[in-house]
Amino acid sequence: MHLAELLERRTVPAAGVWFALTRRCPLRCLHCSTDSTATAPEHSPQPFLRLARTFTASDHPEFALFTGGEPLLRPDLVVELAETARAVGTRSYLLTGLFFARRGRIPAAVGRAVRAVDHLAVSVDRFHEREVPRRAVFGVLHRLLAEGRDVSLQIVSHDGDPYLEELTGEVRREFDDRVPMLVGRLAPAGRARQWLPLSRAVPEPPGAADPCSLAAWPVVRFDGVVVACGNQHALDAEHPPAHLCLGDAARDDWTAIRTRTFGSPALRAIRLYGPCHLATRHGGDAVPGDCCATCLRLPPSTGAAEAARPTTAALEHAVADLRAKAGATAFLRPHAIPRYAPLATLGHPDA
User: Fold this and answer.
1) Would you call 227 helix, strand, or coil by DSSP?
2) H-type alpha helices, the chain
3) 344 with 332: CB under 8 angstroms?
């Protein structure tokens, strides 16, 4: 499974579901958005397994994505989830910091998990390199490529950082353009909030319609609560905003989660107009220049008026059609560093 296949469907509601399997991680990367530690509380695997077991051949997400923390600290859980998903037609993706590469080998249990998923994404950037040497990561990637595995790199920094040009150039030479790269922007979240200047954040348009394409894939939090996007506050809050809550994996099945993702008036309006526009239009508590923070403050009644309009469904279909035709690179440009967006298609047969 190529990275571009996943990105091409990223804006389709419920085409994918994220499983945040753990807050634990043996690495101490300074930019960690979840502020994960080696001793963070660990939750039961049962909510994740229960939800995955409700996928059916006729009703399942196209993709199941595993993240953390470091999801490979729970290798048996990854294997069971990936195999359960594959049995009904769901493909899997896992994002890892490749902590084990420091020792020059792949532990047996981790190896089974790596080979159980359909795509392995590896975080590599100046912060990860202080924890896991680049050459060690490259060694593991060469081994997996030789086995025919699909892999990619996830890199974050700020636009204009010369490190990005150096790293992406070396990756292209090292792997002969066979390894796609998703090059994203650093965000002031988790540990990065302590040192990353807010000026590095990308400003949002003041009140103009700016559809949110990220409130589309549910995220199963570390504790099993299901929210509508990966905003860190929504993942961390004891009581996430009501309009971003989709249920609980301990009691709700996939059909219920999918139905709420598609049908929530608030989420439909957020995906169509964006939270900043909605707050401006309805007199909401907008946070200047920060549509994600504005979204967290929207009232539960958001979207009711928009959903009731007879033209809304047609407009949703038109926007969805435009996004589907635009492809992976177009999806990345507003969410990542635009000039590196084409790197996500490296190695794709149609690239």
Assistant:
1) strand
2) 3-7, 46-52, 75-86, 108-116, 134-146, 162-175, 232-236, 254-263, 265-273, 275-282, 291-296, 304-308, 312-332
3) yes
Query: What is the C-alpha to C-alpha distance for residues 351 and 343, in angstroms, rounded to an integer?
Result: 10
Q: Is 177 left (phi over 0), alpha (psi -120 to 50) or beta?
A: left
Q: Three-state DSSP class for 211?
A: coil
Q: Of 63, 71, 68, whose CA–CA distance to 110 is shortest?
A: 71
For the record, the structure tokens of 180 come out as 């796609």
- Reported as a single tens digit per residue, the pLDDT across 161-193 is 999 999 999 999 999 999 999 999 988 787 887
Closest CA relative to residue 150, chosen from 4, 9, 342, 2: 2
CA dist 179 and 181 (Å) reads 7
DSSP per-residue letters across 260-321 = HHHH-HHHHHHHHH-HHHHHHHHT----TT-HHHHHHT--TTTTHHHHHSTTHHHHHHHHHH
Q: Give pLDDT tens digits for 216-250.
A: 999 999 999 999 998 888 888 888 999 999 999 99
Q: Which of the 8 DSSP states describes residue 24? A: B
Calpha distance 151→262 (Å, rounded): 30
Per-residue exposure over 236-258, b if at least 16 CB sit within 10 Å of its own CB, e if not? eeeebbebbbbbbbeebbbebbb
Cβ atoms of 227 and 219 within 8 Å: the answer is yes
